[in-house]
Write a structure and sequence with these properties.
about 375 residues, alpha/beta, two-stranded antiparallel ribbon, 14 helices, about 10% strand, disordered C terminus
Length: about 375
């Protein structure tokens, strides 16, 4: 039989029986309790009562015992919302460990995929449960990024790009900086520690967080231009709407400014290239975050050659189908389709309303 705590009604019975002269063993039999339980309860509610002869006698008060119980229970905190819902625990662990979801994304997927699971907790509670070790298989080491305070950048010296003839990020329009218009990307490369062999070209759209991963034979200017040529041919006429600008760092592979801007399909330029300030990776924050996610699949030091095109496509699909908190728990693919579904082949802005302005509300972290 499961243990059941003594309630206030039983305490009243104990008080009446004890006042009537019953022993703790007799009270235990009457209430179907163990005698040790009754002894502990009598000690909880014990007080000295003064009789008519001005003599103190030990007595038991149900009210005193109940107040003591309530006071001690108030310090325990709320009960775990997980309870015994092993289906919930198994689902969350599977999403974090197998699907590599963040805790927030796992909870979002739970609401969409498993409405039959009744347990619901907030993001902060889930992180607290992981910190406390309440999940058997999930620890902080399994998370994409642990909650950490970012360093401030107030004292970072702002300098212009190494090449003053190139377009600096300072020249980028304010509506691009504020993410009010879609079609503006950030670009970087992911490579092994040897800096030789194949590399990944990573492009991140600033509003929808759509990711494009392309393998290149080497980390050179020529390969970057060739990759953009392939991308332009793949998108066709929609390229010029979808890729209005690309922001890069000052890496040597991005130094062919004219080659990256020149179109392989028409006489006009295909896009606009902007350069970040040196040593200012946060100016491509979305792209840097994407690189960190890729490193979960391709650890530092691992050679890109060891990953097939199919494997790279899997990583890209995972990143584009994962629900993101910053997107209101929509996936980049869903939001990208909403934004650009009417843009292909049409000389109009995909959002409607005032040209150049995105009406998609973007939820910031």
């Amino acid at each position: 039989m499961a243990y059941r705590q003594i309630d206030y009604l039983e305490r009243i019975k104990i008080e009446a029986l004890y006042d009537a002269g019953h022993t703790p063993q007799q009270i235990a039999v009457h209430l179907s309790r163990h005698s040790s339980t009754i002894y502990r309860e009598l000690a909880r509610g014990r007080y000295d009562r003064l009789d008519t002869y001005l003599v103190y006698h030990p007595a038991y008060s149900a009210d005193i015992a109940q107040r003591d119980r309530d006071y001690k229970s108030s310090g325990k905190g709320p009960s775990l919302k997980l309870g015994s819902d092993f289906v919930f625990v198994e689902y969350i662990e599977g999403k974090i460990l197998n699907d590599r979801y963040s805790p927030a994304a796992a909870l979002a997927a739970l609401a969409w995929e498993r409405p039959d699971i009744a347990t619901r907790i907030c993001i902060k509670t889930l992180y607290n449960y992981i910190d406390q070790g309440l999940f058997l298989n999930v620890t902080n080491k399994a998370l994409l990024r642990r909650r950490e305070h970012k360093q401030g950048y107030d004292k970072v010296q702002r300098v212009r790009t190494k090449h003053p003839l190139f377009a600096s990020i300072d020249e980028r329009p304010v509506w691009v900086n504020q993410r009010l218009e879609a079609g503006h990307w950030e670009m970087d490369t992911v490579y092994s520690s040897t800096k030789k062999g194949e590399v990944l070209l990573v492009l991140t759209e600033r509003i929808t967080l759509k990711e494009i991963l392309m393998k290149m034979k080497s980390r050179t200017r020529r390969e970057v231009v060739k990759a953009l040529d392939r991308l332009e041919r793949r998108f066709g006429i929609a390229f010029y709407t979808v890729f209005k600008s690309i922001t890069v760092d000052n890496g040597s592979e991005f130094m062919d400014y004219n080659g990256m801007e020149a179109s392989c399909r028409r006489k006009a330029k295909r896009t606009k290239i902007y350069y970040c300030h040196p040593y200012s990776s946060w100016e491509r924050g979305s792209n840097e975050n994407a690189n960190a996610i890729i490193r979960r699949f391709i650890p530092k030091g691992a050679k890109i050659e060891g990953f097939s095109t199919k494997a790279i496509q899997y990583i890209e699909n995972w990143m584009n189908n994962c629900p993101r908190k910053v997107l209101g728990y929509r996936s980049p693919n869903i939001l990208f389709s909403e934004v650009f579904e009417n843009a292909a082949g049409k000389n109009i802005h995909p959002f409607g309303g005032r040209p150049g302005v995105c009406n998609v509300k973007r939820l910031r972290d």
